[in-house]
Amino acid sequence: MSELKPRWDIFCTVVDNYGDIGVTWRLARQLVAEHALPVRLWVDDLRAFERICPEIDINVAQQFQQGVEVRHWPSEWLHTEAADVVIAAFACQLPSDYMDAMAEREKPPLWMNLDYLSAEDWVIGCHGLPSVKYKTVQKFFFFPGFQPGTGGLLRERGLLERRRQFQLDAQAQRTFLQGLGIDRAEGAQLISLFAYENAGLASWLDVLAADSQPTHLLVPEGRVLGDVAQWLDVETLSVGAIHVRHSLTVQVLPFVRQDQYDHLLWCCDFNAVRGEDSFVRAQWAGRPMLWHIYQQDEDIHLDKLDAFLALYTKGLSPAAAEAMNGLWRAWSAGQPIGEHWLASRKHWPELQGNAEKWCLEQGLQADLAAALVQFYLNWI
């Protein structure tokens, strides 16, 4: 592999809320750092990219960041030589000139559609199959997933051991939290909240505020802030704001870079996340979690939610599984979740053990970057 040095191009159209750029940026960095591959990451929205990588210069069309060549994807495409491996992230449409450049190569490139993450059974049957063809260039489906026979999940080398060591080091956690201006009260449970707008939030905050155990709720900048502000009965919430309502402390955090967000998830006792990138990172945290899946037409997202829950709750007792299913489904439907939260708390030690067990089981599979590289090696 090191002798061939195939060039990789990854194309990302930033469609919604940083998940697509989050996934492709992690993948590009890992291919460079762990597989010594030359990688170009084509991004059509550098401003969104800047939120998770502040070093990005949004006014520069070509730059290197952490070993990755970052290229702005222009509205009017200029002729560029096609790479040996081409990844269209999340079914984005490649520029027609670039597709012609792929077809003009003496040896056509490996062209893959890196699809959305799903736990549905059909993914295993479709993973790795040929898709459409453009002239001489064949495209293949590549599905991330949770089961053998899929492409696995993004996981950097040594990630789980670094996470374990961090969670064993109380001082390291305090130092990290203090760096974000977080002063965790003794005995308070720490919860992170990263979600889309959700009408069911108020019932959860009501329960947390009335609880005998104090809660420190950390809310990174994002779409759910409006609902939090409404519950607090304040006009707006800005970074650094701290509000206390009985047992509940709410603190607004800045949008942080990816490695900082990982550490935030590792510090928390419970993580509410959304989309795809933060969903996977919360699983690597090994802590109980709640997923706000992105809503799709005709509620097909609920099929994805149920498929994941079937796998994730498989090892739980019937009562604990019922509590988790109720919590997740109500949350993604925008329904009140206060009672579901109380039901889940009755099974807390079991949910904690299940989260860590699930994390370690997923860690036994090949990671997504390694699976992509192996797919290329098998293809050539």
TrEMBL record:
Catalytic activity, reaction form: dTDP-beta-L-rhamnose + L-arginyl-[protein] = N(omega)-(alpha-L-rhamnosyl)-L-arginyl-[protein] + dTDP + H(+)
UniProt-listed InterPro entries: EarP (IPR016633)
Keyword terms of this UniProt record: Elongation factor, Glycosyltransferase, Protein biosynthesis, Transferase
Transmembrane segments: none
GO terms for MF: translation elongation factor activity
Cell cycle in keyword set: no
Annotated coiled-coil segments of the chain: none
NCBIfam families for the chain: efp_Arg_rhamno
Family per similarity comment: Belongs to the glycosyltransferase 104 family.
Role description: Protein-arginine rhamnosyltransferase that catalyzes the transfer of a single rhamnose to elongation factor P (EF-P) on 'Lys-32', a modification required for EF-P-dependent rescue of polyproline stalled ribosomes.
Name this polypeptide is given: Protein-arginine rhamnosyltransferase
Organism ancestry: Bacteria, Pseudomonadati, Pseudomonadota, Gammaproteobacteria, Pseudomonadales
Designated gene of the protein: earP
